[in-house]
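Give me the fold.
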Amino acid sequence: MRFALLLLLLAQPVMAEPVRIKDLVEFGGVRGNDLVGYGLVVGLNGTGDGLRNSPFTEEIMANLLERLGANVTGEEFRPKNVAAVFVTATLPPFARAGSKLDVTVSAIGDAKSLQGGTLVMTPLNGADGQIYAVAQGGLIAGGIAAEGQAARVVQGVPTSGNIPSGARVEREVAFDFGGMEDVRLALREPDFTTAERIETVINAAFGRDVAEMLDAGTVSVRVQGNSPARMMAKLEGLRVDPETRARVVVDQRSGTIVMGADVRISPVAVAQGGLTLRVSEAPVVSQPNPFAQGETILVPRTDASIEQEPGTGLAQIDGGTSLSEVVAGLNALGVAPNDMIDILKSISAAGALHAEFVVN
């Protein structure tokens, strides 16, 4: 297997900079809410839905026109500048009525492009079925398409786009943050050591027994004073030295390898090399002499060879080897970047790689 790119990030064994607590945790209850709706994009230049193939577009358009006072019952219309779309957005925490949201618009029919279209007023519903925002505005498509009678070219995704600040919040999510007696901090990367350090730093700043580590991913903080928001503002600025797990991440599609500085290797021997097999065909035409009886035939000629690449030998990697020493050893073997992923997989399979091995 060949890879076009190898990216190797070596974390040097230097003292890491402390990280703010706000960059390590999520505050319990402070979360966004997904919104979704369906509507129509109009004003397309003949690139909309084919209504015979997308009957729901005609139904949506008829319902919209009837709400606007136009009676289209029994009428047949086949416009090509209309497309049915799904509209999605995220309602951020503490969003108030009148706030604006970015929305994403995606075609659900057979429209060829949404370029230049305008989204008609579309209600956005939450998981409870209530309307929390209304979207409308000019669409910025994510690609472009052009076609002629015998060819078509597409760049990007012209059937999807977005409307910056295209929705307005109409309903607020009920959340009494000011009445909370304790706040839970959820670590984005659960780790017992990091959670214990967060607990220690908070107690040192606000007093004893203010914070309590519940598990590897949760730290409970008791609110002091009359303003939880003020306390959280001070708390999220505190700095902690996070602990990270030794990890090797491999992306097979791009050939990217990322390894942390804490990766260690047990004693293991590595041999790297390969065989190259070449088979070539050079058929020869055989024909009779002039004025002789016979027929012309094709005689096969095959040339097969096997080549052994120059020996890279067998390398011994001692126990407790650091990342930089492993890389230096692989380079000493003359390992090409294309083969390093396979070597790491084999070392991990042998149980000699003391790190979490993640393959994307």
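The longest helix spans residues 192-206.
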